[in-house]
Amino acid sequence: MQTTTVIAIYFLIWWLSLFAVLPFGIRSQHEGENFTEGTDPGAPIAARIGMKLVWTTVVASVVFGILVAVYKTGVIDFSAFMAWLIPAR
Question: pLDDT by residue (tens digit) across 40-89?
Fold first, then answer.
């Protein structure tokens, strides 16, 4: 595979992982004791975006590593998979 393809696949996995990791550990203002007047009750108290980005990178790297291992070892025959996915006319 070309380097640009690998980077693009990793970016897609990272982006999907970001949306999976974002909701974890969020406490909204109505759950906490400090409620700021004039804000939405569902607004997070502390988003901790830096830690979310670290965890997203960890999760994406693990998923990407598993996919690379599956691709390199040939556990799944991708030519047969593509033939099944896009049948000949």
Answer: 888 888 888 999 999 999 999 999 999 999 988 988 887 887 888 887 76
Q: Which residues pair with 44 in a beta bridge?
A: 28
**Calpha distance 61→59 (Å, rounded):** 5
Task: Write the secondary structure of the chain as one string of H (helix), E (strand) and C (coil).
Answer: CCHHHHHHHHHHHHHHHHHHHCCCCCCECCCCCCCCCCCCCCCECCCCHHHHHHHHHHHHHHHHHHHHHHHHHCCCCHHHHHHHHCCCC
- Single pTM value for the model: 0.76
